[in-house]
């Protein structure tokens, strides 16, 4: 029974402060929309794929040690692609106003499990520049790996392509608005319950029983002005009738 009463009080408080909660949610959603569409800088991502061929001496066997060697070689290539040696050449070749460390934070390299294809992705606020950097990294890596490891087994499988209609990967306005709505609902509900908790005024007969610790014997219901006028009119008519009878 106590849980039922608590649940009823919960919904009663929410319904009572529904306007406040709604205003807070709308404010949070509006703020998130304005910030997402007008103040957050869009980030674009372009990717190129590099194919790592097997060395000629290992193409005929295909044994387990050879497969492990190829996987280790690909992992090594993943590190080399983002190395200072490669990125510094890319910066010099493209005349970028950045450092290898800054460019390193914008580049991500990954490959699927047991795959000879390496994906090189570049994020930048400029879509065209992200495409150019991704393709330049692939070209420089293809050239430099011949001298670094004395191997010629790298080919560009799929270069990054510029698409002017490409959407930025972040920010995501819809996701930001959804998160803001949830956060606004939580904050609004919390404020509503806090206000209800801080409100110590006596409103109901249950409040009187809790405050005084005494049982209620009865209470006087409020009378509306319209009903009060009817009572007065009825009393005056009864008074006139008694005078006439006298």
How would you sum up the global shape?
rod-shaped
Helix amount:
55-70%
Number of domains: 3
Tally of DSSP helical segments: 9
Strand arrangement across the biggest beta sheet: 2-3-1-4
Distance between the termini: 59 Å
Beta content comes to 5-15%
Q: Largest sheet at a glance?
A: 4 strands, antiparallel
The CATH class name of the largest domain reads Alpha Beta
What name goes with the CATH superfamily of the largest domain? EIF_2_alpha
Under the CATH scheme, the architecture of the largest domain is 2-Layer Sandwich
Radius of gyration, in Å, reads 37 Å
Mean pLDDT over all positions: 83
Q: What's the β-strand tally?
A: 4
Structural class: alpha+beta
Domain Tyrosine-protein kinase G-rich: 125-194
Keywords: Cell membrane, Membrane, Transmembrane, Transmembrane helix
Subcellular location: Cell membrane
Family: Belongs to the CpsC/CapA family.
């Amino acid at each position: 029974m106590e849980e039922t009463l608590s649940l009823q009080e919960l919904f009663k408080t929410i319904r009572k402060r529904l306007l406040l909660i709604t205003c807070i949610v709308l404010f949070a959603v509006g703020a998130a929309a304005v910030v997402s569409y007008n103040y957050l800088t869009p980030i674009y991502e372009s990717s190129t794929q590099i194919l790592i061929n097997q060395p000629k001496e290992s193409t005929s066997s295909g044994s387990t040690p050879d497969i492990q060697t190829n996987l280790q070689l690909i992992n090594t290539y993943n590190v080399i692609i983002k190395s200072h040696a490669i990125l510094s050449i890319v910066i010099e070749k493209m005349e970028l106003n950045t450092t290898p460390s800054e460019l390193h934070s914008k580049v991500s390299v990954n490959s699927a499990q047991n795959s000879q294809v390496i994906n090189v992705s570049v994020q930048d606020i400029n879509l065209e520049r992200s495409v150019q950097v991704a393709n330049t990294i692939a070209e420089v890596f293809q050239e430099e790996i011949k001298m670094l490891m004395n191997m010629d087994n790298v080919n560009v499988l799929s270069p990054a392509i510029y698409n002017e209609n490409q959407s930025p990967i972040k920010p995501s306005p819809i996701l930001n608005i959804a998160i803001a709505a949830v956060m606004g609902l939580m904050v609004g509900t919390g404020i509503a319950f806090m206000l209800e908790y801080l409100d110590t005024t006596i409103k109901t007969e249950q409040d009187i029983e809790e405050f005084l610790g005494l049982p209620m014997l009865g209470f006087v219901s409020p009378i509306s002005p319209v009903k009060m006028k009817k009572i007065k009119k009825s009393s005056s008519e009864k008074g006139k009738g008694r005078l006439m009878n006298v």
